[in-house]
Amino acid sequence: MTNQNGHRRKRILLFCNSPFGPVMSSPGIRTRHMAEVLCEQMPEAQITLALPRGSRIPPEAAQIGYDVEIYSTFSIPKLFMRHDIIIATDFPVLAMFAFPFRKFVLDYYTIYFIEWLDLAKDVAIGSDLKRDVWIGHKRRRIGAELLYSDFLLTANDRQKDYYIGAMIGLGLIDPLVYDYDPGMHNLIEPAPHGIRPDPLPEHGKPAVKGVFAGIKETDKLLIWNGGIVQWYDPATLLQAMAKICEHRDDVKLVFVGGAYPGMGPVGLGARFHEAIRVSRELGLYNSSVFFEMAWVPYERMKDYMLEADLAVCTYFNNLETHFSFRTRFVDVFWAELPLICTEGDVLADMVRDRELGFAVPEKDPDALAAAIEKLLDDPALFARVKANIRENNKTMGWTRSFEHLIRYLKDPKSSALSKWRRTAMLGGAWAQWVTHRAATIWIR
């Protein structure tokens, strides 16, 4: 396919290996909006979205201008070889056959390894050996992914620092790389999660108030908009709710986001079940605190947020928090909801510094309860916070988020080590990964 000047169009593949369709979590959401931005900003290129079997083809794809292909495991090498640049959050083993001949962009907008350290508590309960082997094979996969990277995206500067350190440890930044690109701008740059491009409507379809038994139209609604995995701390929020409910009955909390897409009941995780247990013990379950057990579709989530008065999210101020970029917060900002969260991450700093809500100390139900009631009961503060969020949203659109990606795609100059040096390293990394993968299966 050629452009108007008779030159072959640059072929860009967005490879998605997560559930995609009405029900999807942040990887699918990010890929969807990336396809939209690339079509808008690079009309001269051919954009293709590759989806796993079982995905639902976006009905808007033809109108926006990108192609869609459904792939299987063994169609991956041929699919990759038909494109010039491949963008993914995860490259499968068979991608290495195309690696020497194509450009690879790794979209690492989270610190997977630190998340896996926490998730291993669910994966290998009761066995330190299982946990060590499982983490070992995950660590080797991270190493292989970084070896692929001609260009790497992160969600913030803290993550950029983290991954530069990881690449130094793998030998991917040597004196020649540093001399050529001392700021690493041609190797790694931030691309934070953006807000929805949709204009904010005044009202949505009924989702909570008057729908959930026990939640009235006049109640003050708090929303937790996402799943509850190991690094989250719902117990502190529930303790704060118990304090509030001692002297008022008009504040209700809904956890919206049950089992992660594609994971079934196991996707709920230990923290989700802990939240239900604690809410029962405190006498809050289905009276002041409610749970959606299924994952709410992406478009339907708007209705929940439009009904809410505040968004809340509590977690532990640990290593995961320090590097995180909590994508659920961005949807909250789109809905212009004041946010109360735990301090420690870059978005919590933004909430504090730009007065978008309150960032409170971890494990402090008293501070959390006070922040909730202050925002609910102070109309002037509430209005000021919403105005601040509205102004802040101007800087958080998807097009702005992907500026560095667009720059690279238009002129793909990379300061990464040569392909041939990395190919040998990549083969060894995948061999180690396969060995550890086999070990995880053997010790089950």
Write a concise keyword list for the protein shown above.
444 residues; Rossmann fold; seven-stranded parallel sheet; 18 helices; 44% helix
Would you write up a description of this structure?
This protein has 444 residues and is an alpha/beta fold. It has two domains: 11-194 and 400-442, Rossmann fold, CATH 3.40.50.2000; 220-395, Rossmann fold (3-Layer(aba) Sandwich). 44% of the residues lie in helices and 14% in strands. It is built from 18 helices and 13 strands. The protein has helices at 26-41, 61-64, 76-81, 112-123, 128-148, 157-169, 175-180, 234-245, 269-281, 298-307, 319-323, 327-334, 346-353, 365-377, 379-392, 398-401, 403-410, 419-442; strands at residues 11-15, 46-52, 67-71, 85-88, 103-107, 151-154, 188-190, 220-225, 251-256, 289-291, 310-313, 339-342, 357-360. The chain has a seven-stranded parallel sheet with strand order 3-2-1-4-5-6-7, sandwiched between helices. Strands 10-9-8-11-12-13 form a six-stranded parallel sheet, sandwiched between helices. Strand 9, helix 9 and strand 10 (289-291) form a beta-alpha-beta unit. The chain is globular, with a radius of gyration of 23 Å. The model has no long low-confidence stretch (mean pLDDT 91).
